[in-house]
Write a structure and sequence with these properties.
mainly alpha; ABC transporter involved in vitamin B12 uptake, BtuC; two-stranded antiparallel ribbon; two-stranded antiparallel sheet; 5% strand; globular
């Protein structure tokens, strides 16, 4: 009897190997398991009205993706930066500056959509370019550079707006209706009015995934994040790669600003407050290593959707926003712990 019990307690090499494989598979797929788990939990916790689960209402599900789009697009850019073992804390302020800029140009200066977009996207990309140049050429840590840029960009946004939100009215003497249709319209798909934000998020995610997996630039990003010294010795243009990534990150923050301004019908210097935290949370929950060198764009997009589902179900249950912040912080810690176990 004792020998039988002893035998059941012995961990054979085969059992240990199977356990390691299952554990690594779980850690690699943490965003998939996380999305599935929170989706099921939300169904269970959802209010029921007229015999229908509110959370599963098609319009509610589309709203989840709609509100995940801004964070998801920013998270794609943040994924590239974190893959380089960097960070960008200026994305929320860039969104505010871009939203204020677009509202001001169209409402106060009577600009059309195309010139407005050209100027705002160029400004956003330029901010990222400056972040990259200071980081690489002056050798200042990205945390410090982007923290300073966050303050500068939000200060410029406040000066530009006069400290007040600039309302966006469309049609007539207001902003062009084309702007609203382009960034906050709907597409009829199989009888559902699908928000255009869904297509922007999908498009950005697909393009970024293709770049990372199928291009030399994507391989350079992973190489620099994995081992910068080895990448430099292998002939990779490390500084150029970093500058391009920071530029893309800020450009995507400007794109998210267009969606935001069109949705809320205004541009304000306080827009995007805390968006850098949400983006970092989505990236970490999605499985990208904070140490750099590994991660997936799809994981970050799923991380953004997880956070949007969390906000949605807590809102449906009328739970205070402070609890949302607490849960997001807990999710980040759990994701980092998972990454640590994965590296071990």
């Amino acid at each position: 009897m004792q020998e039988k019990n002893l035998h059941t307690l012995i961990v054979t090499p085969e059992r240990k190997k199977i356990g390691d494989i299952v554990g690594k598979l779980f850690l690699r797929s943490q965003s998939y398991f996380g999305l599935f788990g929170i989706f099921i939990l939300s169904i269970i916790l959802s209010p029921v009205r007229n015999g229908h689960i509110v959370f599963l209402n098609p319009e509610n599900l589309l709203n989840i993706v709609r509100f995940a789009s801004e964070n998801g697009i920013i998270a794609v850019g943040m994924t590239l930066v974190i893959m380089l073992a960097g960070i960008d804390l200026s994305v929320g302020a860039v969104l505010a500056l871009s939203a204020v800029g677009s509202a001001s140009l169209m409402m106060r200066s009577d600009w059309e959509v195309v010139p407005t977009l050209l100027v705002i996207f160029a400004a956003g990309a330029f901010i990222g370019f400056i972040n990259g140049v200071i980081t690489t050429k002056i050798k200042i840590q990205p945390f410090i550079v982007t923290l300073a840029m966050m303050t500068i960009a939000r200060g410029i946004a406040s000066l530009w707006s006069g400290g007040y939100a600039i309302p966006l009215a469309f049609g007539g003497a207001g902003a062009p209706q084309a702007y609203k249709d382009m960034f906050a319209g709907h597409v009829n798909l199989f009888g559902l009015e699908v928000p255009v934000q869904v297509f922007y998020l999908a498009g950005v995610g697909i393009i970024a995934s293709f770049i990372l997996k199928k291009t030399g630039f994507g391989r350079h990003v992973l190489a620099v994040g994995g081992n910068e010294v080895a990448a430099r010795l292998s002939g990779v243009a490390v500084d150029r790669t970093k500058i391009i990534v920071f530029t893309l990150c800020s450009f995507l923050a400007s794109l998210a600003a267009m969606l935001h301004a069109a949705l809320v019908n205004q541009g304000s210097h306080i827009d995007g407050n805390g968006y850098e935290t949400n983006a970092i949370a989505a990236v970490v929950i999605g499985g990208t290593s904070m140490a750099g060198g590994s991660g997936t764009v799809l994981g970050s997009v799923m991380g953004a959707i997880i956070l949007s589902i969390l906000d949605n179900i807590l809102g449906l249950r009328n739970i205070q926003s402070e609890y949302q912040m607490i849960l997001k912080g807990a999710l980040i810690i759990l994701a980092v712990i998972s990454q640590k176990q994965k590296s071990e």
